[in-house]
Amino acid sequence: MGRTMASKKRKASEAVAREEEASTSGGSKSPEELQKESNKGAARGKRVKAAKPKPEPEYFPEKRNMEDLWQAAFPVGTEWDNMDKIGEINWSFSNLENAVEEGGELHGKTVYIFGSTEAQMLAVNGEEKVVLIPVVVAVVSPIPPSDKIGVKSVQREKEDIIPMKAMKMAWVPYIPLEDRQSQVDRLKTQIFTIGCTQRRSALKLLKIERVKQYDYCLPYLQPLKADEDEDDTVVNIMFPLEPPIVCDFDWEMDDLEEFTGELISEETLPEDKKDEFKEFVKEQVRERRKLQREAKEARKKTIEDMDPETRSAFENMKLYKFYPDQTSDIPDISKVKVSYINRYYGKAHFLR
Question: How many CB atoms lie under 10 A from the CB of residue 319?
Answer without folding.
Answer: 20
